[in-house]
Amino acid sequence: MDTLIYTFKMDNRSGYSKVSSRIGISVSANVFDATTNMLQDIKEKLTKNISCVLIDEAQFLKKQQVKDLCQVVDELNIPVLTYGLRTDFLGEPFEGSLYLLLWSDELIEVKTICHCGRKAMMNAKITPDKRIVRAGEQIDIGGNEKYVSLCRRHYWEGNIGD
Questions:
Q1: Mean pLDDT by 10-residue block, N- to C-terminus, for the chain (162 residues)?
Q2: What is the value of pTM for the model shown?
Q3: b/e string for 61-76 if b means 16 or more Cβ within 10 A?
Q4: 57 is catalytic
Q5: Annotated catalytic residue: which of 57, 75, 106, 157?
Q6: Fold of the CATH domain 1-105
């Protein structure tokens, strides 16, 4: 299937306008930022062969952009799949995640496990010396070197394991 892929403009960990998996598979992508009109941009890039739209780093979408994606589904009859975090490193919702949770037709959670074996609910931001960061800007792009998934208990205790 031909998929129209988007990722957040600021996330250049794998190179500009690329989406990469943790096992090393990557693909070119369109980029979005807070000013992107998603409905208009998708309509401009639409071909008869596009089967779906995939949005990576969907937590960075704005409310209007989520509305735009709903219109892509409802009016253009094109499925939209999104992948992103539910909350930031302080346990607060991202704007995009909040409206995706409210307006999505279907939610599928990809479960992550804490070092203790329980479900990881929190995304802890860590310092280089492995302490949990408890304040700062919501958007700070990073991967495993900067963030660790924890259960609530270990998040609040500040226990990131080994």
A1: 87 65 75 96 89 95 98 97 94 96 94 95 92 84 80 95 83
A2: 0.85
A3: bbeebbebbbebbeee
A4: yes
A5: 57
A6: Rossmann fold (3.40.50)
